[in-house]
Design brief:
- The structure is a single chain.
- The strands form three sheets. This protein has a five-stranded antiparallel β-sheet with strand order 6-5-4-3-7. Strands 8-10-9 form a three-stranded antiparallel β-sheet, covered by helices on one side.
- The protein is elongated.
- The protein has eleven helices and ten strands.
- The relative contact order is 0.06.
- The longest helix has about 40 residues.
- By secondary structure, the chain is α+β, with helices and mostly antiparallel strands.
- The model has no long low-confidence stretch (mean pLDDT about 80).
Length: about 375
């Protein structure tokens, strides 16, 4: 190594230029080393890892390759800056003074470079940690088949990812600030006071966040469930977030409800614990109609409908004596709540056609008015 440096020095007589060349060579050597390591990982290690049963190691290898390449580049630049800084200490500006002593801004410049490289290294490690968190959660979700549990894949795991990343990002900020000699204790105290002020100003938001955790733990509904919520509105849950829950109604509109309102309201889950549900169809017949015939026809219409569950026979109930008609109710069951609306519409049409054909009257509202002539 010394002979190589002496050989280079023989061509470059100026000491400052020589040290600059050495600095550039350090950076180039680091770049070459990074490329070699990346090549080894891609061409030698990757085929070996691809033979394993799990994909976790393959994904980790890709992330490790990236972070190794970037950290080596940062390390090479840092070592090169340290080398040229040391050289400035002994390269003379005058017989009694070095370049480092004469140009005072050099120290400040190298301190800034050192801080910048340190921050860059922390950011690289932070991004590596983010990737590691995402890969780990995704792998674990696949391992336990979290797709079957929509709370985990759609809500809880993404929330845990976000919280983990926020904590790591805050820790990285504290580390970088300590490098620049920022008073961390004062910063933490200020952060605590600021957090209290934010908490007081954002009580509603914090309440929604806590309610979101309660929903995910208590699990009154899951993503994909059809629920009946405020004012008997019905919709499908599409997202359970930190602040709000999004529900898709029958008009394909997103209804966004704050979590604290959901926790305090009455929720009817039409999908849980089973997807079987009941469909009701109300019909009225005249007092002159054959009641048994009407009930038999209703049961026959329901039994022949393809969406009605065969394991639960249809039932017809005599609800009440109406002002103008006898009120009946047909109750059937279907294996999925999404079939209810179609069943009700199609059975009503069948009832109308069948009753018309069989001569069973569906009467209009009517009143009998009796006028008496009281003659004296």
């Amino acid at each position: 190594m010394d002979k190589t440096l002496s050989y280079i020095h023989s061509f470059v007589s100026d000491e400052l230029l020589f040290q600059t060349v050495i600095t550039a060579l350090i950076i180039i050597a680091t770049l070459i080393l990074s490329k070699i390591i990346s090549f080894i990982i891609r061409k030698i290690l990757k085929p070996i890892f691809e033979k394993t049963d799990t994909t976790l190691d393959d994904q980790l290898l890709v992330v490790i390759e990236k972070v190794t390449f970037r950290e080596l580049i940062v390390a090479g630049i840092y070592y090169a800056s340290q080398h040229i800084e040391d050289a400035f200490h002994y390269i003379p500006f005058s017989p009694r003074e070095s370049l480092y002593g004469h140009y005072l801004f050099i120290k400040t410049a190298f301190n800034l470079v050192d801080g910048f490289l340190f921050a860059a290294s922390i950011i690289i490690l932070l991004l590596f940690s983010f990737s590691l968190i995402s890969i780990t959660f995704d792998w674990y979700a696949k391992k336990i088949n979290a797709e079957a549990n929509r709370d985990l894949s759609g809500s809880l795991f993404p929330l845990l990812k976000k919280i983990s990343k926020i904590i790591l990002a805050a820790l990285a900020v504290v580390i970088v600030l300590s490098k620049f000699n920022v008073n961390i204790s004062g910063f933490i105290v200020s952060l605590g006071v600021g957090s209290l002020a934010v908490a007081l100003a954002a009580q509603e938001t914090i309440s929604n966040m806590i309610s979101g955790f309660i929903i995910m733990i208590d699990r009154p509904f899951r993503i994909g469930d059809r629920i009946k919520f405020a004012n008997n509105e019905i919709g499908d849950v599409v997202e359970i977030g930190i602040r709000s829950t999004k529900i898709l109604d029958f008009d394909s509109n997103h209804v966004i409800i704050p979590n604290n309102e959901i926790v305090k309201s009455r929720i009817v889950n039409l999908n849980y614990p089973i997807t079987f549900t009941r469909a009701l169809v109300d019909v009225s017949i005249s007092y002159d109609a054959n009641l048994k015939q009407a009930k038999d026809l209703l049961i026959k219409i329901a039994a022949e409908h393809p969406l009605v569950a065969k394991e639960y026979p249809p039932e017809v109930y005599f609800m009440k004596f109406g002002d103008s008609a006898i009120d009946l109710r047909l109750a059937v069951k279907t294996d999925h709540f999404k079939n209810v609306f179609d069943i009700q519409c199609q059975i009503r049409e069948q009832i109308f056609e069948t009753f018309k054909k069989e001569g069973i009257e569906i009467p209009f509202p009517q009143r009998v008015v009796k006028i008496e002539n009281d003659e004296k």
